[in-house]
Amino acid sequence: MNDQGMATQGGSKRKYVRLKATNDPDETRADILAVAQEQFARHGYAGTTIDSIAAKTKRSKRMIYYYFSSKPKLYKAVLENAYRGIRVAEESIRLDEDDPRQSIKNLVEFCFDYHFERPSFVKMVMGENLNDARFVSASDEIKNLHFPLTQRIEKCLRKGYENGYFGRTCTAVEMHMTITALSFFNVSNQATFSAIFDIDMKSPAVCRARKQEILLAVLGRLDTKLDDGFSTEYR
Amino acid sequence: MNDQGMATQGGSKRKYVRLKATNDPDETRADILAVAQEQFARHGYAGTTIDSIAAKTKRSKRMIYYYFSSKPKLYKAVLENAYRGIRVAEESIRLDEDDPRQSIKNLVEFCFDYHFERPSFVKMVMGENLNDARFVSASDEIKNLHFPLTQRIEKCLRKGYENGYFGRTCTAVEMHMTITALSFFNVSNQATFSAIFDIDMKSPAVCRARKQEILLAVLGRLDTKLDDGFSTEYR
DNA sequence: CCCATAATGTTCTAGTTGGTACATTTTTCT
DNA sequence: AGAAAAATGTACCAACTAGAACATTATGGG
After folding, report:
1. Distance (Å, rounded) from C-alpha B42 to C-alpha B120?
2. What is the pLDDT of residue A232?
3. Does at least one atom of strand D sit less than 7 Å from the CB of B48?
4. Which one of A75, A166, B167, B171 is at 20 to 30 Å from B149 when CA atoms are compared?
């Protein structure tokens, strides 16, 4: 792989990429990053030791400091990499279907699947929240990554409301939060929920049912007219 | 406080409770437990040091080992205490209203508020999930605490469906999961969401709107008939 | 009032962990 | 080929941490 001598996606600025891989900084960086994500996700920031990362790496501990300088900087690199992943993936969601309900369905399906298939991303985000989002707050890159999606959702919601597909509407951020919450929780709290209610939330059947459930709640939110005889205002 | 010489709620088995509080095991235990919950919630299991707990306690580190033997046992005590708290509180939710939609509303409101007001409980649960629910799985007490609520929810859902209040129904566990997910996420991911979308999710206005949003989704789920022209089956 | 015991304080240690100093090999450029 | 620079390996340390050893005080029954 990468034996064409072409530039790699990594941050290396060398003119010519070496063909032999005895010393391979890009590979080393990527290796460290992948192992670090796995470890930080599983054991949290404090629970992860640089030694444990190094042990699972093809290179030595020295390399972690060589490329990432310190534990917090390594963590930050992992986190930004993770957020970049979901934001890029979101671009491919189809939100311009003729029937906006189909767009919302696409959104739910993407969100559910993305989280379900990437538990270590979910755990990274959980870790950040336990840490009061210290690293997310400090990263301009992460904070500037979300605008596109909410704007597209807003467009979709407006279309659905104006064309009479949705009886109600809500803000794009609220919609995004609802869908994300349901998709996220399905993974983030899988361990305790599975243990307490004695179900296997990873099984295809349960997973399928849950996805359908989420879709019903989300579409129900946009569709319902329950004003008849029951006020939803809080007393 | 507790100057009547009556038995305290703690595990002490002394016949007579001391009136002076120079040595006060119940108080010491409770103090340690509260501080420990706060610390474990904020910094996770690995991130919390016994020394840091001791420093915030009125007593010394020695007492932590005196009453709780080890770090994992202290953690387990904190966790069981936290779960006991919510299960007991759940008993007071009114789920037998004439209008089952009101029951569901009560449930949503309770769940939302309980989590919102107890971020450290939420964080404990997050920590457990990051740890693959190791302690929850090992605690029979926690696992046997949930039955009452789901049974009551099921009764409420059946009544609502049979009496025509709900156009659809679902299992009690699904309903519980949906409501919990939305309420839980609102707290668990507050930090990253607030940072990324630049909103203050702790403000009363945002909080109120969010609660309403959740209620609409949940009731919408039970109410909607969207079979007209749009199938929710996955293709 | 005295003593067994419960409750608390102080000091130390063995093991870990983030990070560094120093040494060595590999690659690139001329 | 040979020197400079990049990449990697090894050995080590200072700080921290869970827990234990040892010492002391407070309490309540007789």
Report:
1. 7
2. 53
3. yes
4. B167
